[in-house]
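Retro notes
What went well: the complex prediction finally ran end to end.
Inputs used:
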Amino acid sequence: MERRDFLKVMGASIATVATSSLPLSFLETANAASVNSIIRLPESDTARFAWTVDDGCSHDAVKSYINFVAENDLRLTFFVYGTVSPWQTNAKLLKPFVESGQIQLANHTMHHPLLTKLTAKQVQKELMDCHNFMERRFGIDAKPYYRPPYGGINAQVIDAAAQIGYTKPMLWSGTLADSGKVRSAKFMSLAKQGIRDRGIVLGHANNMVAPNHFDRLLDIVNSRGLSTVTLTDAFEV
Ligand SMILES: [Zn+2]
C-alpha cells in the first residue's frame, strides 16, 4: 500500500474512535454504519485479542506469518485480498491451518477498492469474487466476516454486504500502520498501544516489517498475559 492508502486507513481509524464516543442516539440517525462496524471483541473471562492481518501482497510475509503462528501456537485471522498471488503461492502451506481453525480466512474483497465509491451490486461482486476464490482454493465459507479496504464503510456498504450474508464488518481498535513501510520505533509504539485485551489489531502481510519484529511482538503478548483468538473463536459464529 502507498502512503496515500495508509493515510486513508489512519483517517478511518481516527473517525471510528471519534464517533464511538458520541451518544448512540446521535449515531443511529447520523451514521448507522458506525454503530454496526465492529472494533472490539466481546467481553470474556480470559484476556485475549484478535490478531488480524490484511492484504497479503508479499509472499515472504504471508509465509512468515504462517510459520510464526505454527511455531508459537497462536491463532490468527487473515483478511484475504483475493487477486494477489501470495494466497496461491502459499496455499499448500496455509491450507492445513485453515482446516484446523488455527488460522481463519476472512474477506477483504477481490480487488481492494474503496467500497463507498461502488454501487451495491459492485460491492456484492467484490465480496463474492473473493468469497468464491477462498471457497475454491481452501474449501471454506468465509462469511460473515469482511473488512472494507481502507476502512471505508457506510450504511449502503453494510446493507449490500448483509444482503449476501456478510453481516460482520470488521474494523479495528489498534493498527500497526504497516500497510507500507513504517519505522521500527513507530511500529513498536503502535504495537504496545494496540495489543491489549479485547483488541482487534490490524497488521499487513505486505512487507517484512512485522516478521522482523515477531519476537518483540510476542514479548508484548506474553508479558500482558494475553491469548490470541480468531474472529470465530471470539464471536462464536
Ligand atoms: Zn487492505
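What we learned: The radius of gyration is 17 Å.
What to try next: split runs per interface for comparison.
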